[in-house]
Fold this protein.
Amino acid sequence: MLAEVGITALLLAFGAALYAIGAALYGGRRHSDNWVHSARNAALLTFPLLLVSAGALVLALITEQYQISYVWSVSNPTTPVFYRITALWGSQAGSLLFWSLLLSLFVVLAVWLNWRSHRRLMPYVIAYTMATLAFFLGLSIFLENPFTRYWITPDLPATARAIPAYLFIPEGATAPSYSEMANSARGLNPLLRHFGMIIHPPMLYLGFVGFVIPFAFAMAALASGDLSTNWIKATRRWTLVAWLFLSLGLILGGRWAYDVLGWGGYWGWDPVENAAFLPWLVGTAFLHSVMIQEKRGMLKVWNMFLVIGTFSAVIFGTFATRSGLIESVHSFARSQIGFPMFAFWSLLTLISVGLILWRWNRGELKDEHQFVNLLSRETLFVLNNVIFVALFVVIFWGSFGAPIVSDLFLGTNITLSTDYYMQVTPPLFAALFVLMGIAPLSAWGATSLARLGRALLIPLLLTLALMVLLFVTGTTQPVALLAYGLVSLAGFVALYEIYRGAEARTRSLHERWPQAVLALFGRNRRRYGGYVVHLGVTIIGIGVIGSTLFQQETQQRIALGETLTIGDYQLRYDDFEEGYAADGRYIQRAYTTVLRNGQPLTQIQPRIDIYLSAEQGGENQTMTIAGAHSTLENDFYVLLVGWEAVTHQTATFRVYINPLVNLVWWGGLVLILGTLIAAWPAEVLPARVREESRQRQQAEATA
Amino acid sequence: MAQATWEKTGSANPQLLLRKNSGRWKFLVGGLLILSAVAYLVVSGTLTNARFFITVDELLGDTDYSGQSVQVSGAVLGDTINYDADNGIIRFTIVNLPAQFDDLATALNVAVNNPASTRLQVVVENSAMPDLLQHEAQAILPGRLGEDGIFYATDLLLKCPSRFETDGPQQHTLPQDHPQV
């Protein structure tokens, strides 16, 4: 029953999306309000329909309907209810449906909130977003349907190994026995049972989906001819929200890798990770460069390309990682969706670029100002854009370009090692941090070197002081000093700008400090929210430098009661226990004490979880769960090395000291806070009041 | 009002026009510099870090590859895995992965069950024991083939597609160890 409900709602949503495209385009061309209204209603309808469809799947997961192939493949009777719900995005078919649900939610909000204010863009916004939605729904219906069910048909040969899955009930089919299905069900991959993995995919999807909105508005601007900054104003907040979720998704993914994969790192430059990072890079460039268009009417074509680039990167990333195109350790299934996704990606990119060229050719995308001064803020922003795009290009080349080109044209398979990224990206990141330090101090139009120097003086002195302090306290590596210096300059500039703004208020308005800071942020959320984001990125940068350059590691086998030493820390092996947990996994746990210079700090328990599936014909899966003692200074990260040698007498431990690694997560929180400040809506007048004032203005204008 | 007039004369001022042109030059030179710096980074990075991604058959079949930094992929034989926990050294054997299968899980299964598959001994130093290192996993190994015929890997990446992605439930009339069709 649930499968029927789910598939019916899915089909209706698909129909509604297709209808909305047609009605919107027709209404837009013919300037027919009725058709555009009808298209809007169809677009709005997709969300409740998809809610029903996804709801049916979640309900099927909760009520353990293993006859449904998706339920069978991602859960089993031992799966806790919480993980049953999150299994909605545990595998491909479900995540595609979830993707569509989120997209339709965003579309509903975007259409609803902008209906009156950006009426002219609406038909095309609906057409573009619904085309994207219809494509993903098509994948869900025809290729990756989560609602197919297992049926035993009379003509199924007795020698056939697997029971086939069908969307519609075949004639004379009988359902396989419930207990048989429940016992053989696969269960959720234990690697995915982590809070980071539970919220990482939805965050990433929200980020991906969110960028569809600015893209659709940009394309609507091109299609409708409303090439003012309207589309930018309408989508600024959407872009920030999408960017926020994408950043959050990336940080959580890193956290998951750090906690679960047990190699002491959080970023491995794997193609799949890079595929999620690429849209972030272009999206960040876009966030900055739209400011220039808003303030100076420049870079119109460039911004269009960036928004297409972001959307393209989203679709390409999804395609590249799910099609088996690239070898990656993230074991996504090779599936049939590769080719359709590639076709969709090329088609949309071609249409979009075509639209830009058409408008450009008609001279409608001319910039209102010219670049004159090398130190003006717009020049520095362009430079920032160039670096972001350069990072995009080098990372794209490393993960996709080189392997694909060598495969297509050289007949060989060439991959680039992670050292490639460690060699190529640091200079570009360094350049970004320098720009992050200088650009906020420069002025629109033109800045003189002397003025910039004066503004930079105090942050620069603070940076030098910090470098001296670091040198005195033992950080003598020139590379590290330089890296810390470059990164903290950007942070000091952000702090100093906030200080300067607040100080001016205390002086001229006689406000008290907390009041002045609050008022400062309230008056210009975008600017000061932006500084907080810069501060967050600085903190992340410091964490990355510390944990990359100064990681220490050791691996030793020690007997019960013995200690091993790493740096000025010791680890003592106190006790060991093993046994079955309530959910059936077998746990081996070591009790250890962390000491520093002989003084006990804390007790940690690294463990090994063994998910037994040998009786089901599979191999057991082991998961090494690290124990960590986290402080701002470092993480003392311990793995119990799982091998035959783990006994009550001796155990082998692998220990990492990851300096400053927690700043990566804390910086992430600051970044989120900053983005929220920048995106927080200003006080909005009620719609009635706005409408009245609009009518009054219109009346005045016509009078 | 005064400001508007100033702007008008300003844009017609030949001196300012000249300044604009010299500005263009600066932008052009700057742009070229950045472009060449990025191009240099990419080319040098690619040249030093590119390596062939090959199969066990290709590695052993061509002497050009021995001693060269390559990335080799193969299927892990479970009972060959040995871990020296004191020194963090993993030793195991991989076999050649046949190319004719689209589906990785099938390719891995065929590879480990074929006694004629080419075998390659692998040593990974200074490594924890990865959770996914087990029978029938795909190992992706950057490293070099030593003169002793052993592959010295600098890293170990693993994929186990069989575990959570299979065709579907099996028919209960069949024994679990029924051969694949």
